[in-house]
Every structure is written in C-alpha cells, then in structure tokens.
Design a protein that fits this description.
By secondary structure, the protein is mostly helical. The protein has 17 helices and 3 strands.
C-alpha cells in the first residue's frame, strides 16, 4: 500500500489517510477531533492527581500505615506498572480488529480502573496491620496496571492522529488541557478530604462518583474515535525485537535518558507538597491552594506553547522549560514557616514551564516514531510510549521509595511537630533533588537533533516509498 494516496473510510471506525498532505490546512485536525480524543484524560487527571497528591498522606495519617511501607507499595507498584507497559504497548501495536488496534484496549480498561480506584480509598474498617497493607498493596498495584491499559494505547493513538510536525503539538496540548482539567477536579477532591470530619466516608463517596464518570467518558470517547487503516497489522512481530528497535534509535535513546533523569527530580514532589504545607509552612489544609497555584498558570500557558514551540523550535522550548523548573524547585529550599506567597510564586513559574514540557515532549516522541518507521517499516507507537513510560515510571518508583524511606529514617511522626532533621529531609527532597536532576536533563536534552527540517525529510521519504514490512 502506498502511503501517498488517500482512502475512504473503511468502516467499523477505521479510517485510512495519506501519510502526509502538502498544504498546512489539509494537515490541520478539527478541534472536535482533538477534544473527543482528549476526553479520557479528564478522568486520568482526576484519579492520578488525587492518588499522587493525597493517597500517601491518607494512608499514613488516616489509615495509619507506616510511611516506609506505603513508599515501598508505591515504588513496587510503579516498577510493576512500568514493566507492564512493555507487553501492553507491544500487544496494542499487534492488535488487529474491526475496531482498530487501540480502541479495544480503551474499552477493556473501564471496569478495572473503576473498581481499583474505589478499592484504594475504601479498605474495610476491620483491616489492620498486615491485612491492611496487603489490601492497599493489591489495590494500588492493580490500579496502576489498569491505568496502563488505558494510557499506553491512548497516547499511541494520539501519535497516530496526524503526521504534521506542529499539529502533533496541538494534539498533545489538547490532551494535556483535558488532563489538567481533571487535576483541577482532583484539587476539589483534595480540598474536601483535607476538611472532612470523616475522611474515610468522604473518600468512599469521591471514589464512587469518579468511577461512574470515568466509565462514561472513556466509553463515549472510544465510540467516537477513528483509527488509521494503513497502520493495522504493522506492529513488530517480536516483543524483544520491538524494544530493541527503540534502543537502537538514537533519538529515542536520548529521550529515554532525559525522561529518566527528569523524573528522578520531580517524581516525589506531588506526594511531598501536603507534608511541606503542614509541617514546614504550617498551613494545614492549604495544599489544594498551592496545587491550584501551579495548575492555573500551567492551564493558561498550554495554548501559548503551540505557537512558541513553532517559532523557537520544540526542542529549545522543552529544554528552556526544564531549566526554569530546576530553578523554581531549587528555591523551595529557602521556604520557612508562613512563606505562603513565596511558594505561590514558585509554583506559578513551575506551572508555566511544565505547560511547555508536558505539551512538547510527547510531540517529540511522535516524531521519533516516524524515524523508526523509516528504519524498520513498522508502526509501533505502543512500544515507544511503553519504553518512555518505563523510563519515567522506573525513576518515579525509585524516587517514591526513597521519599518514604527518608521520611521514616529522619524520624517522621504523623500529626505532630517535626524535628529539624525531618524538616531538612523534606527540603532536600522537594528542592535540591529536582534542581540537580532537571539541570542534568536539560544538558542531555539540548543534544536532541530531530528538528523540523530533518523530520520533514523523513516524512518525504516515507511518502515517496511503499510501506515495508519487517519481521
């Protein structure tokens, strides 16, 4: 099949398109297409936001699970989740159905996500000690596994929606806007949990409502989606071969290193802000406001990064955002009791910078997948997004385990004034770690070389050559 010819809709939600259309207007996706595609991230943002910002504190302060134990649970779950991404991505690439290769996985994720999210927030009241730990460990591990079934095929589908260099930034900007809206809703849940007289009951109600909404938005979005027919059956036939190709791709390898180091610095941040608020700033109950101070600037800045990345280059914008985040996090080391306005300034800077990083980075990932197609003749978005997730989640697992162990080692005790050693540990984890690792990531990221000109050459070669299959 030649990629240079357009085809009609073939039925069952699968649509064949040209590899590349010449006029820019022909490349532009309808805003409605991006909105429908992005809708599931509304629920993902809410669930991940609430879990990442408050489940650790809920477990240590309400359920009375030891922080090191919960840190280990989170770490192991993210490691398992990271490695589970690999077969999920590979199988997503290889799936061939009338619905396409991504949408069956989106449908399959609905029930596991909803059930496990409720389970994390509603352990039976009679559970204590080892039985409570087992419940939480099982619920957290299965929740992250269920999210993988959704997020890897969903991210892969986003990379397939268009081949246009800057149009991809619009796709992932829309995806991030939906996720950010979900994070806003997560802040509402956090606000309610921090002020609830019966946090267990409140957590149960929030879990049930969120799960019902999640089921609806995933099903609606998936039913309305379309997939590209020419990508059917073009994934790698070998699991190890697929990820070997990722590693042999020099552009992908550089992104892997960058994402891993970047996540080492920032992974524990969201779990630490509630501790920072209560034990260093002495502003208990204000955590939601601090996250709001981060999310609002990020949400406002997302549409701006599409034209800015077009003007200055996607890589340059991405690297600049990492430098800004490094400096912002580093300033957290100086925070003292009552410094609420200083942290609002810091989170504003970080939020604007993160709007760039979280929009542009997946757009760069999609460009790298095109380069792989030129090398191998295959389309394996699932394998690539799984590999990048492995790097990011592996770093997250290590960072969260380190956070829990450090808090316990430094003498953390829930709901009391902390020692100077514990406060110092909190400051180091929330400031110096991100400062160092974001700085290293920026130095590596500046070497990324697949720019707009080189990508255009790749697309031109793909458009002029027949699709090759390689076992």
């Amino acid at each position: 099949m030649s990629g240079s010819r357009a085809h009609a809709v073939t039925g069952a939600g699968i649509e064949s398109r040209p590899l590349e259309a010449t006029p820019r207007s022909a490349n532009r996706l309808p805003t409605s297409t991006i909105a429908i595609y992005s809708l599931p991230m509304l629920s993902v943002g809410y669930m991940f936001g609430l879990v990442n910002t408050y489940l650790l504190k809920f477990a240590t302060d309400v359920l009375l699970v030891a922080p090191a134990t919960m840190g280990l649970i989170f770490g192991v779950s993210r490691l398992w989740d990271a490695f589970f991404d690999l077969p999920a991505g590979y199988l997503s690439d290889r799936t061939v159905t009338r619905l396409g290769r991504r949408r069956p996985w989106l449908f399959a994720s609905v029930i596991p996500i909803c059930v496990t999210f409720i389970a994390m927030w509603t352990p039976p009241g009679g559970l204590h000690g080892g039985s409570l730990t087992l419940w939480m460990a099982t619920a957290v591990v299965l929740f992250y596994s269920a999210q993988t079934i959704l997020t890897v095929p969903h991210g892969s589908l986003g990379a397939e929606l268009t081949s246009a260099y800057h149009e991809r930034t619009r796709v992932f900007a829309g995806r991030l806007i939906a996720e950010t809206a979900g994070l806003f809703l997560g802040l509402v849940g956090l606000f309610m949990l921090e002020r609830a007289n019966a946090p267990r009951d409140m957590a149960c109600r929030l879990g049930v409502v969120a799960s019902m909404v999640t089921a609806g938005v995933i099903v609606f979005s998936t039913v309305c989606q379309r997939e590209r027919a020419e990508y059917q059956g073009r994934g790698s036939t070998r699991l190890l071969g697929a990820f070997a190709d990722v590693w042999r791709n020099s552009h992908a390898r550089l992104l892997l290193f960058t994402f891993f180091i970047e996540q080492l610095g920032v992974a524990s941040l969201s779990t630490l802000v509630p501790y920072l608020s209560q034990y260093i700033l002495h502003t208990p109950g204000y955590t939601a406001y601090y996250f709001l101070g981060y999310l609002l600037p990020m949400a406002v800045s997302i549409p701006l990064w599409v034209p800015l990345s077009r003007r200055f280059g996607k890589r340059n914008a991405w690297v600049a955002s990492m430098v800004a985040k490094a400096l912002g996090f580093g300033a957290c080391f100086l925070l003292q009791e009552g410094d609420w306005w200083q942290i609002l300034v810091i989170v504003t800077v970080v939020g604007v910078a993160d709007g760039c990083g979280r929009t542009v980075a997946p757009s760069l990932q999609a460009d790298v997948i095109d380069y792989d197609e030129l090398r191998t003749g295959q389309r394996k978005e699932g394998a690539y997004f799984a590999a990048w997730n492995l790097a990011a989640k592996g770093a997250t697992a290590f960072a969260v385990m380190l956070t829990g162990a450090t808090l316990q080692w430094s003498g953390f005790q829930p709901n009391v004034e902390q020692t100077d050693a514990t406060k110092l540990a909190l400051r180091v984890l929330i400031s110096l770690f991100p400062l160092v690792f974001y700085g290293i990531a920026a130095v590596i990221g500046i070497r990324f070389g697949l720019n707009e000109t080189e990508h255009a050459a790749v697309r031109a070669k793909l458009a002029g050559a027949p699709v090759r299959a390689r076992s």
